[in-house]
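User: Fold this; tokens only.

Assistant: Input:
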Amino acid sequence: MRGCKPFRFFHRPQDIALACLISDVGVLMSLKLLYLVSEDWYFLSHRLPMARAAKQAGYEVHVATRVADGAQQIRSEGFILHPMDWRRGSINPLHMVTTVAKIRRLYRRLRPDIVHHVAFAPAVIGSIAALGLPIARLNALAGLGFVFTSNSTKARLLRPFARRLLSFLFAGPRTVVLVQNPDDKALMMQLGLAENSITLIRGSGVDVDQLTPLPEPGAPFTVGFVGRLLYDKGVETLVLAQEILAKRGVQVRCLLAGTPDASNPATVPEKTLQRWREHENLTLMGYVEDIRKVWAHSHVAALPSRREGLPKSLLEAAACGRPLVATDVPGCREIARPEVTGLLVPPDNPAALADAIERLMKDRALRLRLGAAARQTVVAEFSSANVGAQIVKLYARLSANSPAAQPLANKIA
């Protein structure tokens, strides 16, 4: 192993040894990793740290996605882009068949060693496209989507079918399901998946060098929300909580950073958003490119969601030193830890949310203590370096049986 330069994402002696073996053999330079993701902005927002870690480890990184305006940034990272006509949210059978066929042709032409299916819809459609092909599949579930989070009639009708479909698609050889919290892991096991086919990596990585603690802003007291404007994200619950506080004579400003999602049945309609724009002390900011601007003007971060994978918005707020108010549901409670990094309330409970916000408003010492602990937690557990190390190890495990990786397997043996 002379001249070996271990990758910076490996820390333990056994990991460094594995990195050196990979470096000696030169295996990873021939391994192709393909991300299948519905939207370019989602890849850049939620999977960029993982992709950077893979590229640094030597993988040839490809990205197949619908392109809006992220092509230049994706290519500037050294990734190979495959634009797709991807209609997220469509349940048209003809379009579904056409999309599966396009993805399968890409898989057959590119011959990736690993496909990383990002989120629920790509995991399902990509797994169907990969049936029978010698490709290792990583199905990353950042939450479980509308079918599992919504209580609507449509979601309840689709849920039994979705469970059966997932238990079939995710149980194949060289297939791993990647989840972000223990609750989702337990659900996958309830579907009949073996525990060793499920990997838990909490989050996608936060750049703790870019997102640093921010001083508290001045008055008025402000609560920030970052996320898609969906009922399932609890944005309406936050608006109702603000109205409750106003009736109590407690004036709180709310900043809502995010946009509706027309492809999601739980999106807040425009007529409701227009009504909210007329609310006093409620600001709809739309899409915010530099998220630090939101947290620089917010005393507290709120996410009263019904279910999450592991919410990036709370992780980023915590990195900026903000205390958290969230619901006691899967995903949220992984980072919003009661009386440690934040406060937890029941879902769909505006009064409880209002009480938690008012408590933090009136107790600056508590806010500062929770915010400092939130920052420390993100640095210790959810940083890009931490998550990057874990995902590279998982990729190495998945690619161990690919033809290109056989020299490495033989050398290790």
